[in-house]
Amino acid sequence: MNLRRSFREAADKKLQSAKVSNTMASHILILLSMVLMVGRTCHAFATPSNKIALITGGNKGIGKEIARRIGTEPGFTAIIASRDVALGQKAADDLKESGEYECDVVALPVPLDLTDDKSIIAAAKHVEKEYGRLDVLINTAAICFNDPTLYGKVDHTPFQNQADITIRTNYFGTLKVTQECLPLLKQADSPRIINVASAAGRLTILRSQELVDKFTSNTLTEPQLSTLMEQFVNDVQNGTHEEKGWPNTCYGMSKLGIIALTKILARENEGMLINSVDPGYCKTDQNNNQGTVDPADGAYTPYLLALMEQDDEDDGEDMSGLHFYDQQEIPWSYQ
Ligand SMILES: NC(=O)c1ccc[n+]([C@@H]2O[C@H](COP(=O)([O-])OP(=O)(O)OC[C@H]3O[C@@H](n4cnc5c(N)ncnc54)[C@H](OP(=O)(O)O)[C@@H]3O)[C@@H](O)[C@H]2O)c1
């Protein structure tokens, strides 16, 4: 199976059917969308026919660009989730006002903080109350101590102190969001989860074959994975992580955990498209804007995954549990 080709074909097909459909049904849908758009003033709104996409960390960077792309797609409503509601609203206002095309985007009016389970539960409840379901969850929010001071935003953070906050935010926070959203996703016709990972989470950062075997096991469960992530934190805090084969990167481990989690979720939720993406080295606050890729380009593959057809017609297999970079599936073991 040529994944790259079929991924492109599926995505192109979806784009075509959304934008230049040649079937009567699609014409009617597009007509309906246009009628709804004409009636829209400054407030975007969801209709039962709209697909609902929730984007965590949507207030800036890659997440904001994902919200722009999805919100601009006919038949989609993008919901920006952020830990600071005012920042989310500012981003939604900006997307609605600044784009070349109308963007159907709203800000979640309640905060979603990856380190606060209650906020995650409340955010999912809000989506349930407002929309009754969720079609796409894009887990974008994350922190990164590549620079130990987060580029001057915090005091110098020693490595031992980075582990707990990084794993708690990026891995356990994303896990909690996903767990709370799964019942809502199950209400959708073609649900999907896109986890924004990173090259930092490639398998080759692990320095022990035993760990590689554990993380890549086809029988690994979420509780077992979560225990491994906790072990990493404990070993870093005890100063024993190197001798146990863990890498010297908390961010990398958090993303490695996200890629492993993606594969587990895909196995456990047949019929859902659940994939991870490396967006590339994008110019955002995360790297003090030193990245080389426009965040709009980094947002392209997550956007295609949100839109692609449910099954790959080459062999009837769903494209789920895979890791993508630049529009194509890539092995987790890349260098
Ligand atoms: N930029 C790159 O080169 C690159 C490369 C590979 C992967 N990635 C991944 O791409 C995703 C987006 O990153 P980015 O580059 O766009 O970075 P960014 O501009 O720094 O955006 C990060 C987003 O995550 C949010 N966030 C951080 N901690 C949070 C928390 N506790 N609860 C809720 N939201 C939280 C931030 O909210 P605030 O505004 O409130 O801080 C912000 O919206 C991340 O998963 C990142 O790891 C980025």
TrEMBL record:
Keywords: NADP, Oxidoreductase
An annotated Gene Ontology molecular function: oxidoreductase activity
Highest taxon, organism lineage: Eukaryota
Its EC number(s): 1.1.1.-
PANTHER family referenced in this protein's UniProt entry, alphabetically: CARBONYL REDUCTASE 1-RELATED, CHAIN DEHYDROGENASE FAMILY PROTEIN, PUTATIVE (AFU_ORTHOLOGUE AFUA_3G15350)-RELATED
UniProt record similarity statement: Belongs to the short-chain dehydrogenases/reductases (SDR) family.
Name under which the protein is recorded: Carbonyl reductase
